[in-house]
Amino acid sequence: MRFTIPEILDQTIKRIIIADDHAVVRTGLQLILEETTDMSICGEASNGFELIEKLKSDTYDLVILDISMPGKDTMDLMKEILSAWPLLPIVVFSMNPDEIYAVRMIRNGASAYINKETNPEQIIEILRIVLSGKKYFTQKQSAMLAELVIEPEKNTNSFPHQTLSDREFQIFSMLASGLKKSEIAEKLSISKHTIGNHRSNIMHKMNLATNSELTRYAIQHGIIK
Questions:
Q1: Number of domains forming the structure of the chain
Q2: DSSP label of 154
Q3: What is the number of alpha carbons within 13 Å of residue 202 lying toward its C-beta?
Q4: Signed CA dihedral, 117, 76, 142, 205: sign only
Q5: Radius of gyration of the chain from its Cα atoms, rounded to whole angstroms
Q6: In what order do the strands lie in the sheet with 14-19?
Q7: Residues 165, 204 contacting (CB under 8 angstroms)
């Protein structure tokens, strides 16, 4: 089979899909990557369900995933993607500070965690690092990960929410956002009884008594806005 020069060049371009419910974010990243010749956004999704369907119907080299979208919970969505496409790197894109989600996402398989305030040149550099098969951690993220491995019991900088398991943290965030147990149960496909058990564990670990206190804590620590 013979190829023209443009066809050969196209084969070297890395295909990226971005999942974010804000069109302005998707457009912004599209404009940033238009300045490059080695990667391009070839797919967009506004929610988790749409993302999965697009991954099933086409091939991509990298996923840029917003931390908060309607539909599937982001942490469950990331696990689903890595289960079906284990070699597909995921870069999590978030407005939240590292202390809230970075370590959880990295521990669950994210190749990088980028704050949306990161400058365009650095975003391009990070994406290239990840596309080369490596993971990217900031100095701060590396220090946070090290604290979990090296004598975590001596880490005096941790907050109560950091003691929660991934599932507990999901439910904590949803409760703090005002969702009812029935709504959370439907979203996570588990029973209301299980939600109740998790809520009890969350309240105990965080030394809180009411959902109002949960919400106040979440706002104070930037987990919800």
A1: 2
A2: G
A3: 26
A4: positive
A5: 19
A6: 39-45, 14-19, 62-66, 90-94, 112-115
A7: no
Q: What is the three-class DSSP state of 91?
A: strand
| Interatomic CA distance for residues 111 and 92, integer angstroms | 8
- Look up the CATH number of the domain holding residue 211: 1.10.10.10
Q: Is the pLDDT of residue 2 over 60?
A: no
The residues facing 18 across adjacent strands are 44, 64
Domain match, 102 and 13 both: yes
Rounded Cα distance between 78 and 83, Å, is 9
In which domain, by residue range, is 183 found?
160-220
Domain boundary residue, one of 116, 147, 178:
147
Which CATH number goes with the domain that contains 54? 3.40.50.2300
Domain boundary among the residues 147, 180, 209 is at: 147
User: Could you tell me if 9 and 85 lie in one domain?
Assistant: yes
Residue-wise pLDDT for 190-217, tens only, equals 899 999 999 999 999 999 989 899 999 8
| For the chain, percent of residues with pLDDT exceeding 70 | 90
Is there a domain that residue 155 lies in? Answer: no
Mean pLDDT of 112-123: 92
The neighbour count for residue 175, using CB atoms within 10 Å, is 21
Buried b (16+ CB within 10 A) or exposed e, 176-213: bbebebeebbebbeeeeeebeebbebbbeebebeeeee
Same domain, 132 and 169: no
- pLDDT confidence of residue 149: 66
